[in-house]
Amino acid sequence: MSLIRLEKIEMVYGSGETRVDALRQLDLEVERGEFIAIMGKSGCGKSTLLNILGAVTKPTGGSYLFDELSVNQLTAGSAAAFRNRKIGFVVQHFALIKDLTVKENIGLPLVYQGCRKKEIAKRVSEVLALLELEDKANCYPAQLSGGQCQRTAIARAVVTNPEIILADEPTGALDEENGKNIMRIFSELNQKGTTILVVTHDKEIAEKCNRTVVLKDGRIVAS
Amino acid sequence: MIYMRWLAKRMASLFSMHRVLIPLMIVLVSCGMSILGLVMNQGQAVEESIADYSDTYGRKTYYFTNEGLSDMTYYQYLEDENVGLYHSILQFRNALLADSRISFFTLMNQPVEIYSQAVPEMFLDGYEEGNADSSVFDFEGRTLYLTKALQVSEAFFREMNIKAEKGREFQEPDYIYKQGEKIPVIIGSGYEDVFQIGDVIGCNYLFEDVSLEVIGILQKDAFFYDSMNGDFKSCERYLLMPALQSADDDFFGKVMLLQQMKGILISDLGYPQTKELFDGLLYEFGIKQSGIYMSDPAATISAANLLNTYSSMTQEVSKQFQMIVALLLLFVVLSIASVLCGFIRERKYEYGIQMLCGAKPIQILGDMLLLDFVILLSGWMIAGGVLLINFCSKGSILATFLVTVLLAVLIAAVLFGYLYRMDVGEIIGGNE
Predict the structure, then answer these.
(1) For chain A, which residues make up each domain, given as ranges?
(2) A63: closest CA among A20, A10, A1, A13?
(3) Which of A89, A116, A160 to probe by mutation at the B interface, max B CB count within 10 Å?
(4) Alpha-carbon distance values, B173 to B150, B188, B245 (Å)
(5) What confidence tens digit (pLDDT) does each residue in B302-348 have?
(6) Whether the Cβ atoms of residue A91 and residue A150 lie closer than 8 Å to each other
(7) B33 min Cα distance to partner chain A (Å)
(8) Is the CB of residue A14 less than 8 Å from the CB of residue A20?
(9) Which of A65, A215, B31, B311 is in the most buried spot, having the most CB atoms within 10 Å?
(10) Is the pLDDT of residue A223 over 80?
(11) In terms of DSSP H, where are the helices of A114-175?
């Protein structure tokens, strides 16, 4: 049984002359434990697809099943709970809250789950160790390098043990060495069973994934 | 608990970023709530006054009485040897006062001519109409000041709810005229700087020189119904004299008795029955054709419209204030909501991060909702202090609290609407 099944997904922005078909009749299946790269030129619908997969945006047509759960039917509150428990996000510019420390940023999804302080501290220290950030636990994002920021973002994404990590250009703001390091972390997480879906322009990164999906004009042209 | 700590941290951050704007919003709320509380308190006082009046007077109707003696009858009445009509009217008046089904009091607007001292023109007859000049004239070597005065009987004070604030009110012997003795007088509150209790005023009243002795000063909010103008008038510029009775049937006694027929008859029997009662007494004492009469329903005023007249201005002012307060509260809601929406816009990126971390809309807006309630409740607490200092009722303070909560909820609804309209998902790439 697929973890994700998208059938005839459509996403239309605007209407009339300003209508943009971001996704057209898109079908996609993602199995558990896959490590997928999504590639395509700018404007081909990659980020829209990621938004739909993350239940941030509802498609204008088609069906989206996540582990047999119809994500399109979720209310705003249920979609939030779904994101919180099932999905980890990693974005290009890290998306860290600047006036929270590293450990506070990492613990944020657990705060929204209503976890107790001790439980949060335990989980946060585990992922800090996993991402080799123990000595930066009390630093603020402004005190970190780009690679450390992205590792913090990954730590936050995995702290809830999500079923899938959605990464949007995770190495886009990093130098080559840090980029490789981040991809190594993703590979390790994938080997432990986490499904990972990476949006990237970089062929080298795509080569590290098990499967590459190519989008063009809102359609999958290669998979 | 940890979420609350996180919220507290966010709040502290908001306060430190907006050190002027947030206190300004609190001041705005406190001003709005203070004005609302004061207006509500005023409105409550009017309502209580209406309720008190209604409880006290129920469905009573006020009928005006007067004498309309023809010239011939009047001069016959005044003739020394003709005392029959005088005694009949006296008996009729006594019967009217004694009848328990109705209440009757004399309310005569008869100016007195003061000569013992100059009287400020605001107290002179015709001052309000701009005719005060004609109320000062010289006569037989004296300058006379035609001064506004009311002659009232005992029930006037009870029925019009009027009290002397200083000194005393009239007592039974004060209503008996004794030639050569001073006539007690209660002065309106406007006279406070002109006359003092114990002062004696020389005047001409009903063709005789008499001395008035000030025995009391009326309360400030004392009003009487002026049947000539069909409106309430303040007593503050009037001298209140007892409607005098004379033990003698001489000229003075006759004129005073006739004067006592001008007054107000209060009854809850309805017009036909009251008229029957009044006419029955006239008939009983043989003065049906004398010209003494009770007004018809068209000229009467009911307790309700009496009160309406009394409070219409207050109610009108109160309505205008309510409109101003409603607009002010709308301004408070719109300005606070727009400022908080500005704060949300400022934090759009952070809210996007929170959304990606799985925060529910209420969790995302937690800091703004908390700030909304902190601003509104802080403003209300200041307003509550202002209202307490102004001795406003607990009801008014509680009502402002409920309005505050309602406004906070309204603003929260606006914030949620704004959040839903805002695309916080832009954090992942952007719309293609």
Answers:
(1) 4-222
(2) A10
(3) A89
(4) 18, 21, 10
(5) 554 555 555 555 566 667 777 888 898 999 999 999 999 999 988 88
(6) no
(7) 35
(8) yes
(9) A215
(10) no
(11) 117-130, 146-158
Rounded Cα distance, A156 and A202, in Å: 24
The answer for residues whose C-beta is within 8 angstroms of residue B97's C-beta and 6 or more apart is B104, B153
Question: Is B16 at the interface with chain A, CB within 8 A?
Answer: no
Please choose, from the candidates B405, B428, B417, B258, the residue with its C-alpha nearest in 3D space to the C-alpha of residue B337: B417
Task: Note whether A127 and A159 are within 8 A (CB).
Answer: yes
What are the phi and psi torsion angles at A125 (to 5°)?
A: -65, -30
Distance CA A176, CA B38 (A): 69
Of the candidates A121, A91, A18, A205, the one whose C-alpha atom is nearest the C-alpha of residue B426 is A91
* Number of other residues whose CB lies within 10 A of the CB of residue B308: 13
Give the tokens for residue A62: 């088609």
Structure tokens at A180: 């490789």
Query: Any idea what DSSP says for residue B182?
Result: P
Give the pair of three-digit tokens for residue B150.
């009311």
State both tokens at A153.
């973002």
Domain ranges of chain B: 2-52+311-427, 60-309
Residue B283 tokens read as 């008939």
C-alpha span between B57 and A26 (Å, rounded)? 82
Nearest CA-CA partner of B400 in B387, B412, B390: B387
The CA distance from B243 to B107, in Å, is 8
- ∠B356-B358-B359 over CA atoms, to 5°? 105
Shortest alpha-carbon distance between residue B375 and chain A (Å): 23
Q: Chain-centre distance of CA A101, in angstroms? A: 21
Size of interface A-B (CB pairs under 8 A): 101
In a 3-state reduction of DSSP, which class is residue B12? Answer: helix
Distance in angstroms (rounded) separating the CA atoms of residues A159 and A127:
6
Q: What is the ipTM of this complex?
A: 0.89
Q: At which residue do the structure tokens 């709320």 appear?
A: B29
* pTM attached to this predicted model: 0.60
CATH pick for A4-222 out of 2.60.120.430, 3.40.50.300, 3.90.1030.10, 3.10.290.10: 3.40.50.300
**pLDDT tens string B255-273:** 888 888 999 888 888 888 8
Q: Can you give the pLDDT at residue A19?
A: 87
CB-based burial of residue B63 (10 Å sphere; 0-12 exposed, 13-18 middle, 19+ buried)?
buried
Q: Per the structure block, which two tokens stand in for B291?
A: 């010209």
Which pair of tokens denotes residue B309? 């007249």
Which chain A residue has the Cα nearest residue B364? A112
Token readout for B351 is 């809210």
Report which secondary-structure segment, H or E, holds B397: helix B394-421
B404 and B377 Cβ atoms separated by less than 8 Å: yes
Nearest-Cα distance to chain A for B311, in Å, is 54
Would you state the torsion angle of the CA atoms of residues B91, B92, B94, B98, taken in this order, to the nearest 10 degrees?
Answer: 130
Decide if A51 and B6 are in contact by the 8 Å CB cutoff. Answer: no
CB A4 within 8 A of CB A52: no
8 Å CB contact between B375 and B22: yes
The strand pairing partners of B369, in sequence order, are none
Asked if B114 contacts B209 with a C-beta cutoff of 8 angstroms, the reply is no
B356–A47: do the CB atoms touch at under 8 Å?
A: no
Q: Do B252 and B181 touch, CB atoms closer than 8 A? A: no
